[in-house]
Amino acid sequence: MANHLSFLLLFIIFYRVSAGRHVSVQAGGSITIPCSYDQYYINHVKYWCKGYGWTRCSSVVRTDHPKSTDRASISDDIAQKVFTVIMTDLEPEDSNTYRCVVEINGGSDSMLQWFYLSVTPGTPELYVDQQEVTGVEGGSVTVRCYYSNTGDIKWCRMGGDGVSGYSGTLNGTSVTLKRTSEANNRTVLTVTMSGLKMANTDWYWCRVGELEMPVHITVSQPTATQRTSKMTSSTQDPTSQQPSASPTAEPVQTDNTSQGAEGNMEEVHQRSVKVLLISLGMLVVVTAGILVTWKMWRKHKDNKAKDQTTNNSVDPFPEADDDVTYSTVIPQHKAQLKGQTKSAEPDDNVVYSSLALQVTTQQRAAAQ
What are phi and psi of 176, to 5 degrees? Predict the structure, then answer.
């Protein structure tokens, strides 16, 4: 019976040791550690503790209190069922074993994962230039892992499958691994995930031998600016970018995306539409200019013709009132017989002279 208990104890110890992760960070740098948990523990308190032994593990930060200290903080994402711990300004004496723990009310707390954090004064054996990488749906992201140690190489999703060798798939997304050597006896493992989906948002691990480094990938919908810059992003060579000067794996937000042929076709289509709209706009402006010029010319021509007509319509007798002569009208009565009396009724034999308008020679010349 004692042999069985010893074997069981050794098995448990071996399982916990094999399930641990070894993370290396340069002194003065920072590290973000993710701890995943079961849905059953969503409403439980989680904490990050330090210490080799289980009984000597002292709490550093908790999701209830304290949530942060001068060099550590904790946050809980219940949607992703992951709580993360950020440690900053690390020093060599911070090298120790750390644990992700869920508090069980009325019982023993549950350890989710343990880590051995190694803080080195020089460049660590495994590091990444960015722990936070963002991409857009349908695009690609590239992660670079720098290492000087040896061992099996693997890119895996937290709590899921992994890809080793040169290529593979994770949740329907294409993954390629490429290794290139540097002059300082280091090797760069370039991991490219293409055809991103929203479901690819998660934590991933870059693993070389016994060392690992967590990387969080966030996939979002492309914005208008990102759609117009697809052509530029797709032509950038991922290997031409240089790593950061300090390999501290400090979280840096980036938009490291490159687009495929589908994005290029969309960009070409958008540029064609813009050229067509610009051409139509220029045609409208030219046509409007021609119409305005034609209308102004016609108006000028009509005004000129109207002026000529007004000049030709001159009064032929401008001063006729001054030279009009009227003849004298004298009524003439027939002679009455002597001895007869004048008739009381009006005489019908009254004769009137005609009225003539005399026009001067100057007026005739002006009329002609």
Answer: -125, 140
Taking the C-alpha atoms of residue 116 and residue 96, their distance in angstroms, rounded to an integer, is 6
- Cβ atoms of 165 and 154 within 8 Å: the answer is no
User: For the chain, which residues make up each domain, given as ranges?
Assistant: 16-120, 126-259, 265-312, 314-333+352-368
Single-letter code of the amino acid located at 276 = L
CA terminus-to-terminus distance, the chain: 150
Structure token pair of residue 324: 């009009």
Count the helices and strands in the chain (H runs, E runs).
Answer: 5, 19
Q: Is 196 helix (H, G, I), strand (E, B) or coil?
A: coil
Q: What is the pLDDT of residues 28-41, one digit of tens each?
A: 999 999 999 999 99
Domain 16-120's class?
A: mainly beta
Rounded-to-integer distance, Cα 295 and Cα 194, Å: 61
Give how far Cα 324 sits from Cα of 329, 359, 363, Å: 16, 7, 11
Token reading at 177: 């691994």
Joined together, the tokens standing for residue 33 give: 């550690």
Q: Is 184 helix (H, G, I), strand (E, B) or coil?
A: coil
Q: How far apart are CA 157 and CA 160, in angstroms?
A: 5
Range 126-259 classified under CATH 2.60.40.1120: no
DSSP label at 35?
E
Chain segment 31-86, per-residue pLDDT in tens: 999 999 999 999 999 999 998 766 678 889 999 999 999 999 999 999 999 999 99
328: its two tokens = 């004298």
91 closest CA partner among 31, 33, 29: 29
How many CA atoms, within 13 angstroms, populate the side-chain half-sphere of residue 347?
Answer: 11
CA distances from 30 to 86, 115, 118, 123, 162 (A): 7, 15, 12, 13, 26
Please answer whether residues 94 and 103 qualify as being in contact, where contact means their C-beta atoms are separated by less than 8 angstroms: no
Q: Is the separation of the CB atoms in 140 and 261 below 8 Å?
A: no
pTM of the predicted model over 0.85: no
